[in-house]
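Quick one - inputs below.
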Amino acid sequence: MQDVHSTQDSARPKRPLLAWFDVRSSRVGGWAFALNRLTGLGLVLYLFLHLVILSLLLRGEAGWDAFIRLARSPLFLTLDAVLIFGIIYHGLNGIRVGMVGMGYGVRLQRALFWSLMAVGLALLAASVWLVFTV
Amino acid sequence: MQNATANQRKTGAAGGLWLLQVISGALLIAVLGLHMFVHHFVVEGGLRDFQDVLAYVASPLVVAVELVFLIVVTTHAMLGLRAILLDLGPSPKVEQAINIILTVIGMGTAGYGIYLALALHALAR
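Output:
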């Protein structure tokens, strides 16, 4: 977990994007970093998609309620679960990155990471249950 | 000496943006959590129907909270994209272009979102 301040690292990999998926390094920090970036990119795409979907509201009741019916299908609910995973992981790992970047819990960051992931797993389970039952 | 000062400034600016990323992220955890709860977890079927949405956005306080959410999430998203792009090691010229393009995209996104929120609020009244 030495990648908290990646943009300021002096030793930048020659192919930084491919380095995210370099499995030769089995350190948890490398996977946490790559997943943080991938979920971040996914969430940025979702931000734009969300605004496009919300634009349907301007078309009136028929347009929005037709979308609602589609959004309650099992496929959409599964995509919701993937989205919630991205939000929870990115948010909780972001707490660790922020804390360690500011100098808090640097030595405990591995334990911090796994503790946050345990919290995340519980939140994910509760959220997915709500998505499929409410 | 001038270069050293410029470097110090750049480091200061980068540090400031990183701190903004962290602060906006912390705010997002609170505001996004509220957004998910209010819009998806306590609403039957996970989404409000059209009349429910209009009833919800009729309140100026709700619109204000949603606008704060929009601005914070857009800021965080653009700073995150910038960090990823800067990791690719662009030249200073390309870095400047990245800054400009992301600022334009961010302003456009926030601007459209603000228009959308205010249009829905007007529709609800």
